[in-house]
Request: fold
Amino acid sequence: ATNIVFADGNPKAKIMLIGEGPGSNEDQEGLPFVGRAGALLDKMLASIDLNRKNVYITNVVNYRPPENRRPTDEEITKYLPYLKKHIEIINPKILVLLGSTALNALVGNEVVISKARGQWIEKQFGECKTSVIITFHPAFLMRQPAQKKMAWIDLKMIRDKKAKLKI
Ligand code: URA
Reply:
């Protein structure tokens, strides 16, 4: 872990996505989701007419955990105040949590992703009131392609919410 991997996309976007943490491609490029998981994420976004010009993307942790391990609780705790402030500054109307690391960091440890995905939760981060939806991380979907049909349900919910909010 050497480079900061902070964010990509449009800081004025009304839709913000949060992943886990950078992998080695992201560490090299200094941008989130530029490897294989990023290519799938771009396809998922494109399926509902979104792209890096109309969303904003960051991760729970901003430095690559060695050996692609999941961030530790200590790392998550360290970055969490900055992540919450980051959400407040971007002030999205829709917040998409990609995978269980983002779910656990921002919603809680009691919840499992298979139960929490596909539902809207209203949340407030400082001054930012936002509609949160949890879906599967694209790296998980590459390992479990049978779950892509669930991710598609979630993507359609995002598309419909965006239309409803006229954003
Ligand atoms: N996985 C993540 O969670 N974030 C990235 O930036 C890349 C892969």
